[in-house]
Amino acid sequence: MTAESVADGSFSLGVVSPTLLAAEKEEAKSVLTLFLKKQGLSKAVAARTISKSDLFIDHLVSRLHLVHKSWYSVGRKLTTLEIRDALMPYLETLREEYGNILVESVENFPNAPVKEKPAVRVSPLHSTVDSKKLKAVSRVSEAGPEGDLHPQVLYLIELGMDLERIKLITRRFPAFAYYSLEGKIKPVVQFLLDLGVPKSGIPVILTKRPQLCGSSLSGNLIPTMILLEDLGVDKKQWAKVINRCPALLTYSRQKLKSTVDFIYEMGLSAKSIGKILTRCPNIIGYSIEDKLRPTAEYFQSLGVDIAVLLQQCPQSLSLSIEANLKPVTEFFIERGFRMEEIGIMISRYGVLYTLSLKENLIPKWEFFLTMDYDKSELVKFPQYFSYSLEERIKPRYAHVKECGLTVLPNKVLSLSKVLSPSSHAFDKILNKKMKKMLSEEGSTDSNGKG
User: Fold this and answer.
1) From the CB of residue 83, how many other CB atoms can be counted at a distance below 10 Å?
2) How many Å apart are CA 97 and CA 91, to the nearest integer?
3) pTM for the complete prediction?
4) What is the pLDDT of residues 394-426, one digit of tens each?
C-alpha cells in the first residue's frame, strides 16, 4: 500500500482546528476498529492494530478532507455517520486488494509488506476471477496503439480522477474497465451534471458506485428516479441525495418497495417517507431484517416512537446495536437516568445516539456536573449535547454566573434559555432577568425598611 495523492493532508492542516482534527482521528479509529472486527478480528487484536496505525489513521483523515474539501472550506463539519459512510467503502476496496495482508498493510502504511504467494493450489474459479481483475487493471493502465491511455481513462482523468483511483475501482469492479465511453460513461456523467451534481463531485460518486456507468439511463436510472420522486423525494435535492447515496438509483424496484413498506409499517405518512428518503437515502441500502427492524425494536424497548425518530433522525436506524446503541444506553443508566427518561431524551432529540461518547457525551456530561442544574434538565433539553462545549456551553454559562444570576433554587434560567437563543436574544434575556432581579431586591429592601 502506497500513499496516494489523497494522503497529502496539506489542505486539512491548513483549515481544520487541532481540536476537530483530534476528534476526527478518534472517529477514524472507531471506524477502522469496527471494520477490523467485521473481518473477524477480536477486540484485543483490533485494538493492537489501531495502536500501531497512526500513519494510516492520518491517511484516512486526509481522505476525508480532500473528498469533502468544499464542506470544510465553509465550516461544515462531518457527523459520525458521514465519516463512517465516507471511510467504509474505501476500507472495503483495500480489503479486496490486500486480502490476508490487510492488517499488516495498515500497520506498515505507507509501505505494504510483500505478499508471498501460497504454495496451495488455486481453484479454477479464483484463478478466473484474478485473471479478470488483472486484465481489467491492465486495460486501464496500459497505453493504446498511439501511445495514449484509453479514451475512457483520459476522460475520467479530465473529470478529476487520478490513475490510481481508476485502478482501485477496477480491481473492485472489473467491468468498469470495459464500459463504453460514448454509450455509457458520458451519458451517465451528463445525467448527473444535469441533476445539479458539480463536476468536482463526479469522481467521488463514481468511486463509491462505479455500477452507475453500467446502468441503462432509459431502462433503470430514469425510471427509478421517477419512482422515487413519486414517493416524495425532493426533485430540487437530487444532487445532494446522490452525493449521500450514489447507489440509490441502482437499487431494484423490489428493494425500494420493501424499505418503503417497512417505513409505512413504522407509522409514517407518504409525505414523511419522501422527506426521509431525501434526507437519508442510505436507509434503502440496509437489510430490513438484519439491520432496520432489530434497531427499531431496540429503540422501541426504550419507549421511543419510531415514527417520530425516523422523522427526526432516520440515520439512527443504521447504527449498530452492540457498537453504538448499547454503550450510549449504558452511559446514561450508569449516571442515574431511568429507561423512561432515556426514551424521552431520544424522542426529543433524535440525533442523540449518533453522537460520539468519547468526544461529545462524556466531556459535556462532566462539565454539566459543574453546573447548578439537576440532571432532569437534560431530560427536558437533551439538545444540550448538540452545542459546542468550548464555543457555546462554557462561555454562555460563565456569562450567566458573571451577571450574578443563578439557576438554583429558583431556576432563573433553564438550559434551553441559556443555549438556544442567538447571541443578541441571549443578551436581551440576561438583561431582562437582571432588571427583574434588581427590582425584586429593591422591593425587598423597601418592605424591610417599612
Assistant:
1) 22
2) 10
3) 0.67
4) 999 998 888 877 665 555 688 999 999 999 999
